[in-house]
Amino acid sequence: MSTIFAILMFSVLIFVHELGHFATAKLFGVQVNEFSMFMGPAIWKKQIGETLYAIRCIPFGGYCAMEGEDEDTENPRSFQKADWWKRVIILVAGSAMNLLTGILIYCLLFLPAETVTVPVVHSFTDCCIFNTEDGIHEGDIIRELDGEKIYLNNDVTFFLSFSEDGVHDITVERDGRLIEFKDFEMGHTHENEDGTLYRHYGFSIGQEKKATFGDKLGYVFDNVADNIRMVWVSLKMLFTGQAGLQDMSGPVGIVSQMSQIADASKTAWIALLNLLSVGAFIAINLAVMNLLPIPALDGGRVVALLLTTAIERITHKKIDPKYEGYVHAAGMILLLGLMAIILLKDVFVIVKG
After folding, report:
1. What CATH number did the domain enclosing 164 receive?
2. How far apart are CA 347 and CA 353, in angstroms?
3. Helix (H, G, I), strand (E, B) or coil at 172
4. Strand partners, 144
5. How remote is the C-alpha of 292 from its chain's centroid?
6. HEC secondary structure over 116-152
7. Residue 269: which pLDDT band, with cuts at 50, 70 and 90?
8. 29: buried, middle or exposed (CB in 10 Å: 19+, 13-18, 0-12)?
9. What's the mean per-residue pLDDT of the chain?
10. In a domain? residue 10
11. Highest-pLDDT range among 55-69, 125-139, 146-160, 323-337
12. In angstroms, rounded to a whole number, what is the distance separating the alpha carbons of residues 115 and 10?
């Protein structure tokens, strides 16, 4: 069931993404030649007006094919003939729809709840070294850690894990006022029986709070903001070598992880809620990733559009769209190659495991 859910989830996310492009293109009078779900040969298609609607046989991807998207045509309703700001909106609309989908899922998950969890210091162990009169107290709300805003409980353990010496800059809220600790020693090293070392902090965090509607709405947007930040943190880790190809997952790996999450859930209802939470996380990730300035992605197309518009305004010469098309085609080949490598890695991990 989790596999079916994952396929449906990806299908919905692709559909709403392409629907964003389609709806704004129609709104601005750009001709849409085809609106297709999935890839490969069509298993169903219907021509309605100028647009061919199709469902194709490979359950991955989809597209909204606009007239003159990568080439210049004489059609006055082509994508290239639309005002530059209209084209930007059309390109961004897909990611905007994915972001909205993530927000709506989180609203479904959190607005009915009676409580929200706040990053409050709950208790200390005997070996904690910073539970002193001048240190952190029970009931302190952790607001910032090493320059990163704390949205959720998991943020605390996540950013603590980056420390090499257990020394941190931390800001807490106590009795309505903010208190800053600079170069504050929090973690200390312990030795396992086998001689390996680990860092211990000695405190627990997280407290349920009876929530107003405003609290729950704030919790929704805290989750959204946290997800967006995690994309940038993950990219930074990739570029700095803190993460590698082995830490990346494609659709196959994600489906496998979702199956594990479902299996670990105590009831079918909890499994559904957990899978919906994963769906919201993926929707927001897709929204951000699609806006990265990489050729073939919507963000790359926006950057290319803004650059060509500026150059044409300065030089008063029209740039042939086919050159931009070549760049995006090359980017697509590289992206497909990366996806193939990740797919093989995911399959290998599943078979090996």
Report:
1. 2.30.42.10
2. 10
3. strand
4. 149, 171
5. 11
6. EEEEEEEEECCCCCCCCCCCCCCCCEEEEECCEECCC
7. confident
8. exposed
9. 88
10. yes
11. 146-160
12. 30
d(CA 20, CA 164): 44
Which region, left, alpha or beta, applies to residue 48 given φ > 0 means left and ψ of -120 to 50 means alpha? beta
Whether 268 is in a domain gets the answer no
Token output for 190 = 């312990």
Same domain, yes or no: 167 and 77: no
Split at pLDDT 50, 70, 90, the class of 325 is confident
Q: Write down the residue that tokens 């489906």 correspond to.
A: 255
DSSP 41-68: EEEEEEEETTEEEEEEEEEEEEEEEETT
3-state secondary structure at position 76: coil
- Cβ 108 vs Cβ 186: under 8 Å: no
Which of the four pLDDT bands, split at 50, 70 and 90, describes residue 38?
Answer: confident
Both 91 and 125 in a single domain? no
- Burial code of 71-105, b = ≥16 C-beta within 10 A, e = fewer? eeeeeebbbbbbeeebbbbbbbbbbbbbbebbbeb
129, 199 contact by CB (below 8 A): no
Pairwise CA distance, residues 312 & 320, whole Å? 11
Domain residues for 9? 2-110+280-352
- Is residue 17 located within the same domain as residue 83? yes
**What is the residue whose two structure tokens read 């972001």?**
99
